[in-house]
Amino acid sequence: MFFASDNAGYVHPEVLDAISRDNAGYAMPYGADAGTQRVQSKLRDIFEAPDAMMHLVATGTAANALALACLSQPYETVFCSAVSHIHEDECSAPEFYSGGAKLTLVPCAVDKMSPDDLRKAIANEGTRGVHGPQRGAVSITQVAEKGSVHTLDELKALVDVAKEFDLPVHLDGARFANAMAALGCSAAEMTWKLGIDAVSFGGTKNGLMGVEAVIFFDPAKSWEFELRRKRGAHLFSKGRYLAAQMDAYLTDDLWLKSAASANANMARLAAGLRGLEGVRFLAEPDANMVFALMPRAMHRRLHDGGAVYYLMKGSLEGNDPNEPLLCRLVCDWSISHDQIDHFISLAAG
Amino acid sequence: MFFASDNAGYVHPEVLDAISRDNAGYAMPYGADAGTQRVQSKLRDIFEAPDAMMHLVATGTAANALALACLSQPYETVFCSAVSHIHEDECSAPEFYSGGAKLTLVPCAVDKMSPDDLRKAIANEGTRGVHGPQRGAVSITQVAEKGSVHTLDELKALVDVAKEFDLPVHLDGARFANAMAALGCSAAEMTWKLGIDAVSFGGTKNGLMGVEAVIFFDPAKSWEFELRRKRGAHLFSKGRYLAAQMDAYLTDDLWLKSAASANANMARLAAGLRGLEGVRFLAEPDANMVFALMPRAMHRRLHDGGAVYYLMKGSLEGNDPNEPLLCRLVCDWSISHDQIDHFISLAAG
Amino acid sequence: MFFASDNAGYVHPEVLDAISRDNAGYAMPYGADAGTQRVQSKLRDIFEAPDAMMHLVATGTAANALALACLSQPYETVFCSAVSHIHEDECSAPEFYSGGAKLTLVPCAVDKMSPDDLRKAIANEGTRGVHGPQRGAVSITQVAEKGSVHTLDELKALVDVAKEFDLPVHLDGARFANAMAALGCSAAEMTWKLGIDAVSFGGTKNGLMGVEAVIFFDPAKSWEFELRRKRGAHLFSKGRYLAAQMDAYLTDDLWLKSAASANANMARLAAGLRGLEGVRFLAEPDANMVFALMPRAMHRRLHDGGAVYYLMKGSLEGNDPNEPLLCRLVCDWSISHDQIDHFISLAAG
Amino acid sequence: MFFASDNAGYVHPEVLDAISRDNAGYAMPYGADAGTQRVQSKLRDIFEAPDAMMHLVATGTAANALALACLSQPYETVFCSAVSHIHEDECSAPEFYSGGAKLTLVPCAVDKMSPDDLRKAIANEGTRGVHGPQRGAVSITQVAEKGSVHTLDELKALVDVAKEFDLPVHLDGARFANAMAALGCSAAEMTWKLGIDAVSFGGTKNGLMGVEAVIFFDPAKSWEFELRRKRGAHLFSKGRYLAAQMDAYLTDDLWLKSAASANANMARLAAGLRGLEGVRFLAEPDANMVFALMPRAMHRRLHDGGAVYYLMKGSLEGNDPNEPLLCRLVCDWSISHDQIDHFISLAAG
To answer: By the CB < 8 Å criterion, does C107 face chain A?
Structure first.
């Protein structure tokens, strides 16, 4: 019963098969292989963006930090939610890659910025001449950090605020497929049709070994990205193995099917938990992640029964035995219904 | 007939098998998996260094730039040969990761610094108070960039110069195994027993998909490395797949056997070329790489016959048909004797 | 009637006289002159800190950014109030000089952090292993940004929190003398006796042309400071003119007398304003600065009468004529009583 | 007899008078004062460049590093001579300000690059795709580091090489006035008429307390410069005192007169030295600096007689009493003929 993260499961067998199939002969290194070209072409088709440029990297932090470095200047500030992954979980990689840009934290009720708060945060910067940082890119996480999925209207409203100020928009799509599966929209509808400029298109949390694509809809930034990627040591000599993974991912909708499985697993889990006394969700689990408050006794039963998940910071510190614990539960594509049902029955006590 | 690089061949089947074998169930992410612990332990045994700390990354540039960032301050200068990979081929990743340190280029006849030149270069810096950069780490490449292998005595002499000035020493061992196979020494003899402080221990050029280990013999720098690795976006969530590769690499001497194969392939190639009219080597191919001057007609025959390798910069620019061309030829472990013999027969004309 | 800033007045005549007196003959450059030595010695006496190291720079931002760069690592976060000058008014100089460290903004009612909020902010960082930034220095501004002066007990409580976590403490003392004059304490009591490690000791806002001293009570950081200062282009060749200014400043208590004048001027201004209908202070003006809410009609009279001061951001944007305006009023040492009284009479209408 | 440097003399009395004259009342801070505007206008007139933007800083290193940061990307390399001040004497400030760009050192016989060597150095970079740094700005020092002045034709030839590759050109003019005085040309002829894009226009070595202007002939880079200057902590609150110095400098040709004096002093010194047995110049002293080889006995006489100048690195290390010493001798505007003549008579023995 492993609900700790969607980056802990095994690689989808079709992905590993694709690697094995390609594992013969020689291929030109550093992305000059045929597979990398094929992936670029498939992504252009999927995104209905024939001019877009796609670049592969191996970690989500690399995708985010490199994309933002291409959209920002060192004397600018990037606008993101106060709980954003780029702020909380990347050890200041965006600051490092941008040469010292700031992040301006926009308040959020749970994990979504409101357009008004974003507008206020942007309006509040760039007003002190050279003394303050200048307004830089806006970064939005989809699926958001506590499990919410922005609707297309919500995304549009945030992008529109950025465009009021003529700022570029980056989408941290570590769980891009899960969001699309939840919304039932197209990749284009969730990105450039809204005005989004660059996307971190995740694969690692959805069955790959370690591949993300950075997509620029305007190819002008592409060469700078390639230089910054190399300089950041993220250019793989054996790029063909990144390409093989992403290629399999994009073949026969594997990416969407895996995401749909993960989301369905979470829906099953949430449905089970929802009925239990003392359980409350921080946000509706729109995709494959939920932050749930649960009674301590329930946690003890689960833990003793072998369930693995993260207790959020501070959960166990207090002394009040009546205070519930905040747990993060994530389903990946491979979790079985049996595991979920067993978890629920343990929780029910 | 692919002699372009040892980063273009396929992954060793035993490595891929290891990945497949491990591809089940869940593993704690970010290096907290059992495989990563196992690799650390194996490397400690191999290096006879029970306190050393080992960290996995996926590219050689990451290994070098992160190791040097831990050994250097932004106001220092790193001493390396004028043809070193960290200077020529990493798009200034060392400068980026160190926060703007300099590289001081030590002259080299072909690809090895002499102790005297290194001493002179070090003595020449750090003499202008705050006006010049301060003396920083020394970085040595083994196998060196044009195919030479430093003898243990040569390495010792360079390390001793660094120690005269109390400077830390980094070994760029992208082809570490090839050097060891050539020298027939132990890993300890080629590193900490000489006084080397940190090693980029390469695997990617010798049959892995993309894994290098950074080794610090003094564990004090280890935590800083982990922070810089994360901040550089080089911490893999699914670290177990890096570990699986490195584990297979270190099992049953696969790393040394593969390197020995590659070296033997080069020896066969070199023996064949050596007898041909008009062929000259820039340096003796001690390991698996040679830079060879060859007549233009010979190159044309090889090229037309399907041989793939790099012509060095400027080779084809001149107009003098009598001027030889400088070619880089690299053998990986998987090159067949047939390919080599066919290459030689084409070259012979 | 110039109340816009204490960095807009003229240089104290005794300071200019000192420059003129010294303006003859040759002096060794880059701080190797006798005057720089003399200043170091005087500051050590004043601070009762015989081992401390003092370094001169020409701007307050240089003092803060360089001091913090010596106390922080790029992968750390600096704790400061949400309205701190280093966050709001230095165009991310601390991020630049530290190589990309973060600032963690501690909430503050007006301009002082509470020990509890600081503790909470520190406790909240450094809990996510390598994923978040590590805990770095604490920076406190004295006089604080809205005109408050921390009492010694308040400072002590904040420093104690930093020491609970073993973090170094920096004091941004752009108005150091004004705070000391307000508290009537010694320089040592306001700094190292509390546990403060480094001080930006301001002079520019108190009658100098442009000189600040950075003071490290532990001399171990001194050489690194000198390297970072040079590298940041803040080492003056003609250092003797910085020294001459600081020397005059420290002679016959000029610094304290000037600060006392400035504070007294503010007290006179505040006393006058306090009695007026509709005027309210954001914080008690403990030193030489006040943020005052005043009716729009009052502002119009003052403005038309030639008074100069800053309206804070947004003050004039609203449409509600009943909403008061937020003004910043600063007195330097040279403001005359006539100017102040004329201002009050204009304000009174 | 102080020939150590032109940054050790006193400030020209007319400059100090200008400061004193302006030292009254209030002036808007951060360059919004009237004096800064006046200086901009005067520099535009002198450079015959009505659209150019001028920015004041206080050190030559700040001028160079900030100008180059605006002309370079972190993944580029700046081309400069192997003895350039930006490489040898700024503790890697250009690397720091540019975010980690490289400097490519162009060989030079004494202190001037040849167009061929520059072309070769540029051609040699930017040929390895993303693996090497990209071609960046060219920086030329005028007066060069060993005392030579480039003729207009020499400058033109270097700028033309840069323009072949479409690269921007920076002129490090720490001794701009001395060069102009030596060449008898106009400021425009020595800069934008040749194609130079940005100039560090020095004042500190020629009678100012500490002011340099950075000039961009294309104003497009001006705003970025202002942000980088603030972020680098080089924006002075009391900018009026920088302006007052520069204003006096540009009034009644003070800058050119002072430079002419300094050059004439050097000419007198050189004429005297030239006749002495065993004296040889590294380069013809075209302006106010000479590097002279002199017998050890001569040096001893001068030293014992109270002459101050720098012995170059290594001069005194050797044991051979017959080996001459390399000395740097610099004249500033204020050196008296008596001092020079006394120096010569001591040298003559």
So the answer is: no
Q: What is the pLDDT of residue B16?
A: 97
Q: Which of A198, A144, A200, A193 is nearest to A169 (CA)?
A: A198
Range of the domain at D213: 13-253
Q: List all chains that touch chain A, counting a touch as 3 or more CB pairs closer than 8 Å.
A: B, C, D
Q: CATH no. for residue D324?
A: 3.90.1150.10
Q: Is residue C131 part of a domain?
A: yes
Spell out which residues of chain B touch residue D105, defining contact as CB-CB under 8 Å.
105
**Which chain D residue is nearest to residue C29, measuring alpha carbons?**
D8
Amino acid sitting at position C54 = M
Q: Does D310 touch chain B (CB under 8 A)?
A: no
- What spatial distance separates the first Cα and last Cα of chain C, rounded to whole Å? 16
Instruction: Say if residue A74 is in the same domain as residue A214.
Output: yes
Residue B82, phi then psi, degrees to nearest 5: -65, -15
Question: Which chain B positions have a beta carbon within 8 Å of A16's beta carbon?
Answer: 19-20, 23
**How far apart are the C-alpha atoms of A177 and A257, rounded to whole Å?**
9
Task: Please tell me whether residues C227 and C285 are part of one structural domain.
Answer: no
Q: What is the pLDDT of residues A46-93, one digit of tens each?
A: 999 999 999 999 999 999 999 999 999 999 999 999 999 999 999 999
State mean pLDDT over B111-117: 98
Q: Does B88 touch chain D (CB under 8 A)?
A: yes
Decide if B100 and D96 are in contact by the 8 Å CB cutoff: yes
In chain D, how many domains are there?
2
Query: Of C91, C98, C310, C315, which to mutate for an interface test with A (greatest number of A Cβ within 10 Å)?
Result: C91
ipTM: 0.97
CA distance A159 to A169: 7
Residues of B in contact with A230 (CB under 8 A): 61, 90-91, 93
The overall pTM is greater than 0.95 = yes
The residue length of chain A stands at 349
Q: What are the tens digits of pLDDT across the range B51-94?
A: 999 999 999 999 999 999 999 999 999 999 999 999 999 999 99
**A79/A219 same-domain check:** yes
Residues listed for chain D: 349
- Structural domain includes residue D4: no
Question: What pLDDT is attached to residue B313?
Answer: 73
Q: Does residue B38 register a pLDDT over 90?
A: yes
| Residues above pLDDT 90, as percent of chain B | 95
C164-176 pLDDT, tens digit per residue, is 999 999 999 999 9
Q: Decide: C190 and C27 in contact? Cβ < 8 Å.
A: no
